[in-house]
Design brief:
It is a single chain. By secondary structure, the chain is mostly helical. The chain has helices spanning 2-6, 10-21, 25-37, 80-93, 98-103, 107-112, 114-117, 120-142; strands spanning 60-67, 70-77. The protein has a single domain (2-142), classed as Sufe protein. Chain: A, CATH 3.90.1010. The protein is built from eight helices and two strands. A two-stranded antiparallel sheet has the order 1-2. Strand 1 (60-67) and strand 2 (70-77) form a beta hairpin. Helix 2 (10-21) packs across helix 4 (80-93), helix 3 crosses helix 4 (80-93) and helix 4 packs parallel to helix 8.
């Protein structure tokens, strides 16, 4: 378990450890909501089919652009918990290079313990958000 955390980028490792310290489902949900509240307002003009995360029950949108060869994400959701998942991933992935993001495996999602707290459709949504963010990082790299 530690080897997975040790191989993660620093911000993502810090998030995983924070969730591992959460002793119950309520604490994990509170942390997720906190991440969601940290998100900046998402521009309505960016709520387009190209930015919509497929396979999510909630409406989820993600954009990405490069700043000095580092990926910067912005995202939003109409669900508080899903918004928290977006915020968690943004906190963990913002500022990484496209290569760092595309090389990550979703194993860290299990390490957070969130898969135990989330409904199967939300856990699947978390995975879909992550995969969409990887795809957006790859698109940034190709520009």
């Amino acid at each position: 378990m530690t080897s997975t955390i040790d191989s993660l980028p620093a911000n993502l490792a810090k998030i995983v450890k924070r969730f591992q310290r959460a002793t119950d489902q309520k604490s994990r949900y509170e942390q997720l909501i906190w991440y969601g509240q940290k998100l900046k307002d998402f521009p309505e003009v960016d709520k387009t089919p190209e930015n919509k995360v497929p396979g999510c029950v909630s409406q989820v949108y993600v954009t990405a652009h490069l700043e000095e060869d580092r990926v910067i994400y912005q995202g939003d959701s109409d669900s508080q918990l899903t918004k928290g998942l977006v915020g968690l991933l943004m906190e963990g992935l913002n500022g990484l290079t496209p290569a760092q993001i595309t090389q990550l495996t979703p194993d860290f999602i299990q390490e957070t313990g969130l898969n135990m707290s989330l409904t199967p459709s939300r856990a699947n949504g978390f995975y879909n958000i992550f995969k969409t963010m990887q795809k957006k990082a790859l698109e940034c790299e190709e520009c």
